Amino acid sequence: MSHKRDPFAPAVHSANVWLRHIADGIATDDRTFAYRATRAWLHTVRDRLEPHAAAHLSAQLPELLRGVFFEGWVPGRTPKSQDINDMLAEFASAAGITDDEAVGLMWIVTDAFRELCSPGLLEHLFARLPASMKRVLLGASPGPNDEETVEDRLTDLADRLHTLSEAVAVLARGLEARPDIEPDSDRTAFAAQEAHRMLMAEHTGM
Q1: Contact 51, 95 (CB under 8 A)
Q2: pLDDT value at position 122?
Q3: Which among 132, 155, 142, 75 is positioned nearest to 104, based on CA atoms?
Q4: Residue of 170, 177, 205, 176 lying closest to 191 (CA atoms)
Q5: Which residue in 68, 71, 49 sits closest to 204, CA to CA?
Q6: 62 neighbors 15 (Cβ within 8 angstroms)
Q7: How far apart are CA 127 and CA 99, in angstroms?
Q8: Is 9-137 a CATH 1.10.260.40 domain?
Q9: What is the DSSP string of 23-71?
């Protein structure tokens, strides 16, 4: 059936191009397995990003894969635990592989997505993740038990300090009162809620 007669054909074609590229990356002719690995990667990564970062990633995806990406997404419950072992176990279960296989497959799928997305996008979106998680996602670590370096710990500390500074700034702006404006309790409450959300997200990632 031609694309002119089937309005969904272009979306199917684009999704197949991406899936073929990912299948080539993981060296398999099994398209079902390639799709399962792709879906597992999308959901596992999505749930460890802040909602705005997840939305940014989704904008790069073909329409059909964007639908897969948002399947079952609950923004209010993200980011999920950023423990590296939890992430790998979730990915392995969804992809139908062992936990040991998850490390290698995850970074290979990441590498395929890096080639398909805008240059530097994934590095930018992963910048706020724990250093050990970034190393697994980007293929710089042999596994979850790889010893965390001093540089990793300093990077994580700097990220947490940055988040704390942002939360304090949000709270300060909400509490700020000008003499010509009546105090706004709704604005203050919203600022407190936003600061709390930021700090809870950081706590979840510790």
Answers
A1: no
A2: 95
A3: 142
A4: 170
A5: 49
A6: yes
A7: 24
A8: no
A9: HHHTT---HHHHHHHHHHHHHHHHTTS-HHHHHHHHTTS-HHHHHHHHT
Alpha carbon of residue 127 to chain centroid = 10
* Tokens found for residue 54: 């997840």
CA distance linking residue 45 with residue 187, whole number of Å: 33
Question: Which residues are within 8 A (CB) of 29 and not within 5 positions of it... i.e. 6 or more apart?
Answer: 23
Q: pLDDT tens per residue, the chain (206 residues)?
A: 455 688 999 999 999 999 999 999 999 999 999 999 999 999 999 999 999 999 999 999 999 999 999 999 999 999 998 899 999 999 999 999 999 999 999 999 999 999 999 999 999 999 989 988 999 999 875 445 444 454 555 555 555 555 656 656 655 666 565 445 555 566 556 666 665 565 555 544 44
User: In residues, how long is the chain?
Assistant: 206
- With beta carbons less than 8 A apart as the criterion, state whether 117 and 62 touch: no
Domain ranges of the chain: 9-137, 150-204
Residue 184 has which token pair?
Answer: 């706004």
Quick one: pLDDT at residue 125? 95
Residue 18 is predicted with a pLDDT of 97
CB burial of 137-160 (b: ≥16 within 10 Å; e: otherwise) equals bbeebebbeeeeeeebeeebeebb
